[in-house]
């Protein structure tokens, strides 16, 4: 008996496609693709929690940003910057031209931690890095170099990140100031481990310009530069080539308003002079890099954000348990404490408090002596074989 309708079977029932059980779920593949392509940290994290496969979100995207704030001395300016940082979901925010004299770190009223570097004498220049309160305990250390350069080390997965925050001299500065700045910056980078991820970001006061025809340095600069290149831009590119850095905010096709980082008074000119660079080895970790013109802190510079696929590594607190003595060690401990008790003078034995203090000191000495004699435990061959099996 033939069906009246082509493509159906029986009593108008549609044909069914039977797949083997090991055939992958297409919805899961689509979810993996969305997680891999999303540059929104909140969206990617939500996708990672919704899907059944937890191994997809081994490295979530986080936002590392730079902003020339043109001073933090105004009342309420820091609160505005932190509010914009929270609104744009930035985990690490580097600041240039903070005008802060001191070098050090402190916790803000919002719970974030700011690490700053100044010259200690004048309220000029200055750089800083703000770490979001969720990642305060991920900072391994920082080093203020001068009022234009500082470094900070962040504990992340799969590797530790070194961020160098800079503020280059302006176009009106002398050539010797430019040379001195790059010399100190070179020495700073050479002192960092090359096996770790390196991010160098800041206000470079240099224009790379249109880079569509720079195919010979495509691993350094992308196709989406903005403006006309100047001498400072040539110097900046030489620095990136020598240190194998990639300028991230020229590598992604965005609208021109997402490319410029500075505008002149009256909005007559728009230039791209703030850059976030990353070690070429980790270029594939950058999902997107662009500016956010909507962020406002009364500055003529725009917020530059790079979305990087990393995972912050929080330190684990390990509490030391009590020292368990072996049978031989127990005998040694007993002999030492008994000897100390018997050698106590007769007149001191009447004072119980004094006697207890002496005994406690001898007990601690005995435990320290036993701990020094212990050798680190080595895994037995049988235990290693079981782990391999």
Q: What does this protein look like?
A:
The chain has a seven-stranded mixed beta sheet with strand order 5-6-7-4-3-18-17, with helices on one face. A six-stranded mixed beta sheet has the order 8-9-11-12-16-13, covered by helices on one side. Residues 1-11, 13-27, 44-58 and 379-389 have low confidence and may be disordered. The chain is elongated and about 95 Å long. With 389 residues, the protein is of the alpha+beta class. Helix 1 runs antiparallel to helix 2 (41-50) and helix 6 runs antiparallel to helix 8. The longest helix is centred in the C-terminal third of the chain and has 22 residues, at 352-373. A hairpin with a 5-residue loop joins strand 5 and strand 6. It has two domains: 27-58; 62-312, Deoxyribonuclease I, Chain A (4-Layer Sandwich), CATH 3.60.10.10. It is built from nine helices and 19 strands.
CATH class of the largest domain: Alpha Beta
Number of structurally distinct domains? 2
Question: Helical amount among residues, as a percent range?
Answer: 25-40%
Shape: elongated
**What amount of the residues lies in strands?**
15-25%
Quickly give the CATH architecture of the largest domain: 4-Layer Sandwich
**Uncertain segments:** 1-11, 13-27, 44-58, 379-389
Could you please say which CATH topology of the largest domain applies here? Deoxyribonuclease I, Chain A
Briefly note the structural class of the backbone.
Answer: alpha+beta
The radius of gyration over CA amounts to 30 Å
Cross-sheet strand order for the largest sheet: 5-6-7-4-3-18-17
- The chain-level mean pLDDT equals 81
Please count the helical segments.
Answer: 9
What composes the largest sheet? Answer: 7 strands, mixed
Question: Distance between termini?
Answer: 60 Å
CATH superfamily of the largest domain: Endonuclease/exonuclease/phosphatase
Q: H/E order of the elements?
A: EEHHEHEEEEEEEEHEHEEEEEEEHHHH
Domain Endonuclease/exonuclease/phosphatase: 66-301
Protein name: Endonuclease/exonuclease/phosphatase domain-containing protein
């Amino acid at each position: 008996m033939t069906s009246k309708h082509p493509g159906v079977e029986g009593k108008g029932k549609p044909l069914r496609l039977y797949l083997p059980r090991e055939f992958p779920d297409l919805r899961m593949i689509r979810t993996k693709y969305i997680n891999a392509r999303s540059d929104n940290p909140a969206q990617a994290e939500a996708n990672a929690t919704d899907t059944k496969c937890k191994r997809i979100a081994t490295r979530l995207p986080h936002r590392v940003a730079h902003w020339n704030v043109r001073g933090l001395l105004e009342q309420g300016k820091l609160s505005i910057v932190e509010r914009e940082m929270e609104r744009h979901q930035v985990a690490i925010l580097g600041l240039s031209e903070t005008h802060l004299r001191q070098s050090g770190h402190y916790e803000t009223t919002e719970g974030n931690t700011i690490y700053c570097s100044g010259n200690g004498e004048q309220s000029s220049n200055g750089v800083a890095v703000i770490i979001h309160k969720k990642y305060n305990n991920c900072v391994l250390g920082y080093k203020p170099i001068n009022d234009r350069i500082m470094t900070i080390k962040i504990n992340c997965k799969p590797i530790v990140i070194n961020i160098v925050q800079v503020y280059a001299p302006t176009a009106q500065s002398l050539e010797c100031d430019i040379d001195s700045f790059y010399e100190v910056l070179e020495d700073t980078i050479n002192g960092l481990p090359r096996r770790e991820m390196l991010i160098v970001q800041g206000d470079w006061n240099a224009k790379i310009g249109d880079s569509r025809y720079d195919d010979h340095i495509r691993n350094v600069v992308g196709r989406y530069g903005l403006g006309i290149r100047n001498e400072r831009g040539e110097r900046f590119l030489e620095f990136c080539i020598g240190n194998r850095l990639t300028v991230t905010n020229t590598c992604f096709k965005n609208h021109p308003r997402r490319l410029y980082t500075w505008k002149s008074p009256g909005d007559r000119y728009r230039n791209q002079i703030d850059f976030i660079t990353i070690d070429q080895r980790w270029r594939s970790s950058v999902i997107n890099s662009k500016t956010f013109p909507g962020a406002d802190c009364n500055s003529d510079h725009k917020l530059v954000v790079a979305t990087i696929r990393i995972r912050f590594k929080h330190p684990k607190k390990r509490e030391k348990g009590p020292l368990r003595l072996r049978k031989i060690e127990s005998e040694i401990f007993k002999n030492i404490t008994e000897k100390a008790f018997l050698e106590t003078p007769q007149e001191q034995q009447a004072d119980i408090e004094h006697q207890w203090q002496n005994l406690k000191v001898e007990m601690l000495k005995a435990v320290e002596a036993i701990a020094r004699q212990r050798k680190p435990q080595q895994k037995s061959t049988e235990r290693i074989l079981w782990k391999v099996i």
